[in-house]
């Protein structure tokens, strides 16, 4: 990592003058194969598209740099990145997952990895004492998501890493929601960081991707999962994600500012039961979040009185869609998208605050919450 500050490094993510043309923005290399020298060597390091590609290498280097890690390994989706970390665990290993872990990861573990021999248990890692109780002699990994989805729970990274390491376990942090612009888990002792780059890192809702960042040796072990598992991102997707990264620092500032304005508005509204946002003083994780994040992010959840789906249906600027981290604000009724067995309250709406003028978002919510809507207290 260079000594330049985050925003400076992000603004020039992957920009390297092209030796052939002088182009400032790098070209896209769609080629699936790369030529050998007459003596059979591959002096430029690239052989075949699944094994390696210049656009993917640039993305991996950049993400490692932004997270403060030694190396990165990119995947075709965030869940493929998560799966690589869990599949690389030794047979019979136990993993501790947060209680409100990303629902796709919960399904992956329950439906694919536990039947294949992984041991897993869930713990409320936002609560002191919960991790101690969940650790077993064969615990190899503690999985952390902070802020969590969709309850915005905050897990203390310093504390969790110290406890896990004392028990001989590694820590992997899903940093999708905070992004390295706001929180860098490796600086708090985490061993691995995963991202769904689909969200804030690409930031424009037009690429599905994932990455794992960590120490050189750990990432090398995951490269086998990438190259042999084959869930590699396309050169164009890597190029687009790098383009998105160049505006990450400035986008995150605007997302944070908008989320704070919306959270404060909602907290004062009579139809609102609770606002779940770590930037508010009344959030139980506020002090920890203030210590480990430089700002509180662009995501919040709100619990409303009455029919949450109806409130979502009355919004005009917020789009009703899943996902997060794009330029456009999104509203989502999590319980119905997660389906049967969800632990998410039915009155909860998750908001991804985009880059619109915060006053317009507040006005949109104000109109949707207007009391002429039916209220069932
Ligand atoms: C979206 C998301 C994932 C999964 O990423 P995909 O790119 O959809 O595979 C994992 N973790 C978190 C926190 C997410 O928001």
Provide an overview of this structure.
The longest helix has 20 residues, at 248-267. α10 (248-267) packs parallel to α14 (358-368). The protein is 36% helix and 15% strand. The model has no long low-confidence stretch (mean pLDDT 95). With 377 residues, the protein is α/β, with parallel strands linked by helices. The strands form two sheets. A seven-stranded mixed sheet has the order 1-7-6-5-4-2-3, sandwiched between helices. Strands 8-9-12-11-10 form a five-stranded mixed sheet. The structure holds pyridoxal-5'-phosphate. Pyridoxal-5'-phosphate is lined by residues 77-79, 102, 104, 145, 149, 174, 176-177, 196, 198-199, 208, 210.
Task: Based on the model shown, name its key terms.
alpha/beta; 377 residues; 7-stranded mixed beta sheet; binds pyridoxal-5'-phosphate
Instruction: Quote the distance from N terminus to C terminus.
Output: 53 Å
Spans of at least 5 consecutive residues whose pLDDT stays below 50 are none
Tell how many strands the DSSP assignment holds.
Answer: 12
Order of helices and strands: HHEHEHEHEHEHEEHHHEHEHEEHEH
% residues in beta strands: 15-25%
Brief digest:
The chain is an alpha/beta fold and 377 residues long. The protein has helices at 6-11, 54-67, 78-87, 103-113, 130-134, 157-166, 179-182, 216-229, 235-245, 248-267, 286-292, 308-314, 334-338, 358-368, and strands at 71-75, 94-98, 119-123, 139-145, 170-174, 192-196, 210-214, 272-276, 299-304, 319-320, 330-332, 348-352.
């Amino acid at each position: 990592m260079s000594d330049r500050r985050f925003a400076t490094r992000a603004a020039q993510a992957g920009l390297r003058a092209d030796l052939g043309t002088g182009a400032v923005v790098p070209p896209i290399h769609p080629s699936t194969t790369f030529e050998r020298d007459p003596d059979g060597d591959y002096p430029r390091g690239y052989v075949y598209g699944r094994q390696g590609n210049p656009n993917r290498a640039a993305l991996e280097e950049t993400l490692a740099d932004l997270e403060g890690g030694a190396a990165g390994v990119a995947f075709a989706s965030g869940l493929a990145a998560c799966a690589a970390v869990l599949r690389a665990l030794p047979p019979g290993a136990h993993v501790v997952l947060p209680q409100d872990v990303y629902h796709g990861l919960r399904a992956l573990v329950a439906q694919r990895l536990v039947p294949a021999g992984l041991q897993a248990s869930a713990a409320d890692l936002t609560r002191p004492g919960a991790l101690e109780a969940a650790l077993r002699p064969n615990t190899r990994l503690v999985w952390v998501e902070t802020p969590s989805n969709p309850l915005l729970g905050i897990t203390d990274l310093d504390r969790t890493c110290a406890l896990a390491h004392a028990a001989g376990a590694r820590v992997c942090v899903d940093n999708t929601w905070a992004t390295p612009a706001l929180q860098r888990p490796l600086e708090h002792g985490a061993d691995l960081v995963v991202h769904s780059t689909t969200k804030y890192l690409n930031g424009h809702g037009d690429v599905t991707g994932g990455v794992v960042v960590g120490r050189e040796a750990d990432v090398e072990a995951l490269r086998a999962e990438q190259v042999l598992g084959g869930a590699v991102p396309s050169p164009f997707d890597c190029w687009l994600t790098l383009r998105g990264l160049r505006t990450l620092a400035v986008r995150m500032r605007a997302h944070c500012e908008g989320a704070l304005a919306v959270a404060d508005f909602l907290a004062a509204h009579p139809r609102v039961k609770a606002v779940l946002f770590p930037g508010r003083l009344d959030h139980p994780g506020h002090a920890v979040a203030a210590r480990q994040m430089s700002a509180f992010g662009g995501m919040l959840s709100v619990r409303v009185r009455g029919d949450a789906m109806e409130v979502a249906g009355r919004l005009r600027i917020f789009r009703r869609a899943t996902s997060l981290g794009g330029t456009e604000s999104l509203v989502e009724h999590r319980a119905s998208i997660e389906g049967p067995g969800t632990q998410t309250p039915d009155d909860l709406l998750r908001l991804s605050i985009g880059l619109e003028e915060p006053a317009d978002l507040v006005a949109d919510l104000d109109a949707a919450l207007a009391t002429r809507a039916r209220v069932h207290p």
